[in-house]
Each structure stands twice: as C-alpha cells, then as structure tokens.
Amino acid sequence: MIKKQTNTSHRPDTVLTHAGLHPRDYHGFVNPPVVHASTVLYPDMDTMKSRGQRYSYGRHGTPTVEALEEALTELEGAAGTRLAPSGLAAIALALQSCLSKGDHLLVSDSVYGPNRNFCERVLPRWGVEVSYYAPLDLDALKAAFKPNTRAVFTEAPGTATFEMQDIPAICKIARAHDALVLMDNTWATPLYFKPIEHGVDLSIQAGTKYIVGHSDAMLGTISASERAFEDLARMYSDTGTCVGPDDVYLALRGLRTMGVRLERHEKNALEVAGWLRERADVTSVLYPALPGAPGHDVWKRDFTGACGLFAFELEQADDEAAKAFFNALELFGLGYSWGGFESLATWPDPKEARSATAWEGHGPLVRVHIGLEDPADQIADLERGFAAFHAAKG
Question: Hey, which residues are catalytic here?
C-alpha cells in the first residue's frame, strides 16, 4: 500500500481534522468512499503479473483502509500503521510480528487481561517463553532480561490498577539489550502520549475505544517505528488480517472528533475523581491525572492529557455491599468496554491476574469510565451507589 507524505508541522487537532483526506481523489467529496471490495480487476495480463497498480485485492487495502492508516501514521509519528479487527487482535498481531520460536517476552504484570491470556495460552504453544515483571520496578525489569529476550510489553497506565510506567526508562533498558518495546496506548491515545517519540517500536490502540468513540464498532491499530514496520506489514499480510470497511469508516468518523471528546472526558473525570477523593468511604482514587494520585509525577512529566478511565477503592466491605453499589447505578451502565460517550462501571479483581506483584487493596475496586454526561448527574448517580452500599453494609 502506498504511504503518502505527512505534514509534521501541523498540530494534533489539525491532524485529526485533515489527515488521510484527499477530496480531489474522490470528485471533491470530503470523506473517502466506503469501499466494499474483494476482487480488483486489472487492465491486462502484464499489469496483473507485476501487480503494477495501486490496489491488488481487497484484503491488501482499499481507499477506506488507506485513509485511516495514513491518518494514524501521521498522528503517531510512525513509519506505518496496520489495522486489526479488535484491540486484542492488534496486540496478537504486534506480538506475532516480533517473536519467534525460542524468544523470550517480558510483560508488565498490570496488562489487559485478554492480553495476558494470549501470552499464557497461545505464545507458549509457539515456543515463546513469557515472564511478567512488576510494572514500577526498573531494577527488577533489568534483572529479568535473558540472552533471548526479544521484546518488552508495556501499558501505561495499567488496566485495572493504573500503574504509570516510566516508558522512556523502559525503552532505554530494552535498547541496551537490543529488545523491541510494545505499548498499549489506548488510555492516552497518541494525542496525549506519542509512544514512538519516546522509544517504543509498536504502539497499539484498541480503536474500539476513543478512536471510534461511540460504542458501535470493533477495531485495533498498530503503528510501528522504522525498525519494526517491515516485520509488522509482512505479518499482517501473511496472517490474512483485515478489517471490514464499515468499521473503518466509523473509526474515521470518530477520529475527527476525538480531540474535543477527550477534553470533555478528562474535564468530567477530574471533577468526579476530586469529589471521590474527599469521601471517607473511598480509600484511594487511582487516576494519574489527579494531583497527588499514584503515578501523577510520571504522568505530568510525559503525558499532555488524560482520558475518562480510572478506578477507586471502596472501604472494606463484603461482596453483597459491593453488588448493592453497582446495582443501584442508573446512569453508569455495567459494561466491560470504555471510551464511548457513555459512563460505565465494572468490578475488577486485580488479585486474579497477578504473578510478579501483589494487589494490596482491601476494599472492592470500582473501575469507571466517565462519559460525556454532566458531571453533576454522574456524581448524583454515584451517590445512589454509595447509599445502597452503606444500606447493605448495615
């Protein structure tokens, strides 16, 4: 697929608005067409034999797919981007592109649960050794490297407990061992943190979340550095990975408003998180953008913003009281995803998926995605949850 020149002088909001758009290619229409395609016809046998035209087969790219890949490549400051049918598929593709039989992979102990499942259930079947490291312990990470360590997987902040990893330091350590660094950057998006600029080789997003932004499409993205892109592109082709054009179109549409949506998500989240921190029945608020919260100093140093996802710990209580809290919520839906316009709540248990570190919390952990509703209404809904929580505690 052709890679077009990007304009690196434009600021992020301008990139979001214009990247990947070429109206003159499509009779002046602002958005690229939604191309549903498998077969592509060639004008003659010589062209067919040489693949001497821009598009060869639907799986290898269409104007719709190319528009999103081009936009994300510019936004990420990458050598190139490839799309996958989901965030987990993007993680799997990125790992496959840089690992072979006999390699060793280091994974942060705080990563997304399905990522951990892939590393534990699939990679060992291919002869890849996987070890987990404490996300905040750089000395332990250094000690965990082996002669066959090929890659390090990072996530900042961690999925349920929001550890803010020092990505530049991890990249420096990995480079000393000639290892690649992968990062799940769904939380910040490249608007608020550009992994490749900080030394990451494969920047991954669950585009289902903030890129799409409306809870109506599945998508994953992988943007690669110069040294990682060729292997990524080859694995993408060899595994037959592709994404349906309608989901790509929804992602393109969502991308144009991601900046203004994230601003509102962060504003609302800071207000709700600040309110939660003042409550006696909340023992901790895990939101790196909140001054004084765990990881705030690293977040302030490396990141330029935050999204609407964070967690807080309730005072110690039994499961029935925790269930009462969740069941009383009316505005916050009970759902596993996040990144859409709506507020959501889940009840993660970090103790279920730890091996290198122990979760030291004692009360129920509540993970919330703060949506685009008025924060006064979000707070009122959480008040309903707290009232039910205390009533159940007795």
Answer: 59, 112, 184, 209
